[in-house]
Amino acid sequence: MSTIHQRILTIIDEQNLSIASFERKIDVGRNSISMAIRKKSAIDHNVLKKINEKFPTYSFGWIITGKSEVDRESSAEFSRDVMLLFKKRKDKI
C-alpha cells in the first residue's frame, strides 16, 4: 500500500518535475515538501488543497487514501465533503 508521500512523489514524477519545481508550482515554502517526504511527516490540508488545485487530475480521494474514485459524481461529492471539512477546521481557528 502506498503512502501519501509516495503518491505525492508519483505526481511529481508523472509531471516530470523536480521536488523544488513542484513546491514552486503549488506555491509552498522551499523544502517544505521535500522535508515532509524525507521525515514522513504530516502534510498540511492547505498543501493538499494546493496540489489538487494545480493538478486536478489527481483527486483528493486518491491523494489522501490512494483509492481511485470510479465515477465523477462520487468524486465530486467526496471533494465537496473534504472542502467542507477544511472550511470547518479553518472556521475553528
The class by helix and strand makeup works out as mainly alpha
Q: List the secondary-structure elements in sequence, H or E.
A: HHHHHH
Q: Give the overall average pLDDT.
A: 85
Please give the share of residues in helix.
55-70%
Task: Describe the structure concisely.
The mean pLDDT is 85. The chain is built from 6 helices and no strands. It has a single domain, classed as 434 Repressor (Amino-terminal Domain) (Orthogonal Bundle), CATH 1.10.260.
Descriptors for this entry?
93 residues, mainly alpha, 434 Repressor (Amino-terminal Domain), 6 helices, 0% strand
Sequence-ordered SSE layout with sheet pairings:
Layout: H1 4-14, H2 19-25, H3 32-39, H4 45-54, H5 60-65, H6 72-92
What report would you give on this structure?
The chain is mainly alpha-helical and 93 residues long. It has a single domain, classed as 434 Repressor (Amino-terminal Domain) (Orthogonal Bundle), CATH 1.10.260. Helix content is 68%, strand content 0%. It has six helices and no strands. The mean pLDDT is 85.
